[in-house]
């Protein structure tokens, strides 16, 4: 039976710096723009509503004051985790429409709660054009959570964001796979030193999107399941300039579609979030339409008639992190397979569908190649730098 998708809007822009002194980031408008192109109807998805974000107001924040909007982001993340957890408990597949990358804190909190409930660890596949790994240990100051989200969810940074509910880290370094960062990412050596597995764009393209998705599965083999974060700035600005920090050297839409399809084509993928699209840079809606086409095609395995219901694997490590005594979520959601039924949790079921993925990659190769070439050509052109997260 197919898995049902539930679409939840998370239109927060609290994690970004203002584009100008008199304006606010426009990515909070992204969920509405994507819905206007028929996203829910085309996915056959349930409308899980909208979690309205607090007002964007940096006030008298100054560099050195810590993360801007930290109190608001922390409260919003807790509520977002509640909403995501409720969707998963229904046996549905959450698609969270951000908003900026600070959305990841709410998703990460939900995943840590879930991992604790089932006695295992949840992993993260981080698909992003930037590592977002700025933290007090490698930068003179922090300020915009959307440029620091991966650092925060791996336990680096101020406790009111990195340790909500006393949980730190939400994801262990060894349970994170980073895909799509640029080859010269500022924090690539810090990721390497932390033991976070990465595959920058050149390696992703050399191996292919489908094989890269399968490789990500394999890196998280010791996790009970995983969450997928997608920042649309993983795309080259030649095909997707409607983001706050466009950076040449990204992938094409066809490659993102294949990558997404490979990542979700397993019952161990627990959900996806989409971030940083800014409709203010898309006046005619063309980029929104392209994103919707890509997401609908990429999530096709989730709603396929033969899709397998979501399933958490039992811990494979010798010393799994136990759920604390008395936890009211110790039994886990009703659909989660218990560790006592390990024989029924064949990891290859629904996971190793590389033959089908390779066919899909082959069918899209000509389109992807032409669009990639276009991206590479356009990426050579100089572009005024937008404010960075």
Please render the helix and strand layout as text:
Layout: E1 5-10, H1 30-35, H2 39-43, E2 46-50, H3 70-89, E3 93-98, H4 103-118, E4 122-127, H5 149-153, H6 159-162, E5 176-179, H7 188-194, E6 197-199, H8 201-207, H9 209-219, E7 225-231, H10 253-264, E8 269-275, H11 286-298, H12 300-303, H13 354-379
Parallel strand pairs: 1-2, 1-3, 3-8, 4-5, 4-7, 5-6, 7-8
Brief digest:
It contains 13 helices and 8 strands. It is α/β, with parallel strands linked by helices and 389 residues long.
Outline the structure in words.
With 389 residues, the protein is an alpha/beta fold. The chain is built from 13 helices and eight strands. Helix 10 links the parallel strand 7 and strand 8. 53% of the residues are buried.
Which tags fit this structure?
single chain; 389 residues; alpha/beta; 8-stranded parallel β-sheet; 11% strand; disordered C terminus
User: What's the helix count?
Assistant: 13
Report the major sheet.
8 strands, parallel
Summarize the amount of helix as a percent range.
Answer: 25-40%
**Weakly predicted, low-confidence segments:** 317-389
Q: How large a portion of the residues is in β-strands, by DSSP E?
A: 5-15%
């Amino acid at each position: 039976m197919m898995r049902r998708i539930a679409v939840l809007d998370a239109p927060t822009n609290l994690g970004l710096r203002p584009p100008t002194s008199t304006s606010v980031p426009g990515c909070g408008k992204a969920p509405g723009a994507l819905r206007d192109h028929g996203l829910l109807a085309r996915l056959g998805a349930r409308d899980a509503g909208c979690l309205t974000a607090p007002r964007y107001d940096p006030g008298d924040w100054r560099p050195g004051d810590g993360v801007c909007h930290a109190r608001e982001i922390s409260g919003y993340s807790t509520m977002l985790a509640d909403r995501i957890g409720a969707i998963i408990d229904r046996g549905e597949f959450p698609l969270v429409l951000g908003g900026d990358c600070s959305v990841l804190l709410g998703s990460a909190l939900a995943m840590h709660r879930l991992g604790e409930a089932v006695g295992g660890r949840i992993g993260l596949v981080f698909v992003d054009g930037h590592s977002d790994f700025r933290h007090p240990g490698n930068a003179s100051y922090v300020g915009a959570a959307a440029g620091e989200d991966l650092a925060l969810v791996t336990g680096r940074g101020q406790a009111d964001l990195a340790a909500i509910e006393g949980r730190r880290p939400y994801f262990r370094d060894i349970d994170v796979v980073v895909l799509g960062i640029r080859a010269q990412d500022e924090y690539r050596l810090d990721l390497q030193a932390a033991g976070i597995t990465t595959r920058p764009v050149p390696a992703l393209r050399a191996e292919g999107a489908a094989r890269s998705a399968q490789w990500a599965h394999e890196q998280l083999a010791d996790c009970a399941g995983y969450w997928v974060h997608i920042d649309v700035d993983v795309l080259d600005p030649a095909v997707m300039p409607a983001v706050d920090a466009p950076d040449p050297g990204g992938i094409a839409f066809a490659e993102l579609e294949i990558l997404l399809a490979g990542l979700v084509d397993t019952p161990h993928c627990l959900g996806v979030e989409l971030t940083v699209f800014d409709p203010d840079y898309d006046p005619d809606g063309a980029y929104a339409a392209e994103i919707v086409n890509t997401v609908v095609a990429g999530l096709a395995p989730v709603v396929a008639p033969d899709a397998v219901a979501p399933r958490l694997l039992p811990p494979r490590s010798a010393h799994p992190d136990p759920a604390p005594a008395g936890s009211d979520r110790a039994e886990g959601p009703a659909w989660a397979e218990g560790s006592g039924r390990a024989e029924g949790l064949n990891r290859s079921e629904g996971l190793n569908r590389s033959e089908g993925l390779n066919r899909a990659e082959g069918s899209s190769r000509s389109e992807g190649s032409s669009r990639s070439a276009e991206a590479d050509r356009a990426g050579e052109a100089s572009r005024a730098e937008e404010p960075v997260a």
